[in-house]
Amino acid sequence: MKTLNVLKFIYNHPFNSENKIGGLLKFFKWQINCRLNPYPILYPYTENSKFIIWKGLTGATGNLYCGLMEYDDMAFLLHFLRPNDLFIDIGANVGAYTILASSEINAKTIAIEPVPSTFKNLMDNILINQMHEKVKALNIGLGSKNGKLKFTKSLDTVNHVATQNETDTIEVDIKTLDTILSTEPSPILLKIDVEGFETEVLNGAEKTLSNISLKAIIIELNGSGQRYGYDENQIHNKLIELGFKTFNYNPKTRQLKEIETFGTHNTIYLRDKEFIEERIKSARQIKIGSTQHRV
Q1: Were both Cys, which of 45, 56, 189, 270 would link to 49 (CB 3.0–4.6 Å)?
Q2: What are the tens digits of pLDDT across the range 224-258?
Q3: What number of other Cβ atoms are within 10 A of residue 145's Cβ?
Q4: Tell me, what DSSP letter sits at residue 195?
Q5: Can you say whether the dihedral through the CA atoms of 3, 96, 254, 66 is positive or negative?
Q6: Strand ranges (DSSP E) for 14-134?
Q7: Domain ranges, ordered by start, for the chain
Q8: Are 189 and 87 in contact (CB under 8 A)?
């Protein structure tokens, strides 16, 4: 079933709309390559960036199949950010968003990834893209207070703060976002993907959220908060009270459409819509991968 879901995702992805069979062929070619070649490969991510992938790296291989795995959100980042903006990638994994921000756009990034093995892969992608002067990578987790927490360590893109019943874990240092940013300039964009721990991350970011320099948040709200007893409607209400509104983004038309509530995966929260629209409409076109696709 998992493979079938991947094939459906590839078939319906916007970048594959004009060549659905070609998109599926990328999947099968990669599966064959994994069996014949046990080594990582380097592939063109955007016109100014690269990505290291290997067998089992599900998040990165989604970009191989589809150009931009999280099409709307990644395209929004590419159109919104400018050189030297500060972007915070919370739950950076191996660096898909960090690479787009700092290698392609030349923005500054603080990339936060708690799992040591995944953090090593993130550092490899920073090195291969020569982003060390633009990216500060932190091998920690985020929460509502400084301390330590246990994380799962072998679930790839869905590693998370461990519950009592999970035993394959590693202890990780935890800090608040406000602590990390106490000596940094204000970020303009946050991406938060922490598999249900978003409530705790935001509780440790009160000062950051209240700073009007923060214009946009891309956050995953897919019900995972229930794992810890959190109601994600409270996150939504909190961000609305801080002046954010929820939007869908159409990369082809570069239009923002306000929506009533959050979605089932990533949701884009924005404030100062006019400022954001001016940026996305004036952003340059960016070539994706080795294809003819541009956003």
Answers
A1: 45
A2: 888 888 899 999 999 999 999 999 999 999 999 99
A3: 11
A4: T
A5: negative
A6: 41-46, 49-53, 86-90, 108-112
A7: 70-282
A8: yes
